[in-house]
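Hi V.,

You were right to ask for the full record rather than a summary. Here it is.
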Amino acid sequence: MRASLASKIGASFLSIAALWIFAVNNCGAASEEPASTKTIAAIKGYLVMQTDQNGNINVEDPTTRANRTLEFISVHDTVRKNGDTYSICVGFVDRNTDEKVNVDYDFQQEEDGSIKVTQSSVHKINDKEFYAYDTQNNRIPTAP
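Predicted structure:
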């Protein structure tokens, strides 16, 4: 089923090196800016690599700690930067509940020049935010 996800997001197995190009060309203070085509393609390639044999991506629900089985919808069109870390949001739908789930993927440049996704975290479920961002792109937990 990996091929079906690759077809759906319009990506083949892409090198995460494209993220490195983005990081090198976008150094500086905290910012929110349009995601480049290369960044979006690299994240899509990363997602293809993370899918199971049924085309699903699994994440832990931050409230229940239960596993959620997600289907890819879209990569959002902005990238946040805080220091050496970049973050991009990806929209999914939960295959079991039909809830909309937004997951933020953090990535950074390694010493050898490669890019590594360092963390993924559920940002929203059906528009209920688990955290917001301050002006420096730090994550601030929201009230339950």
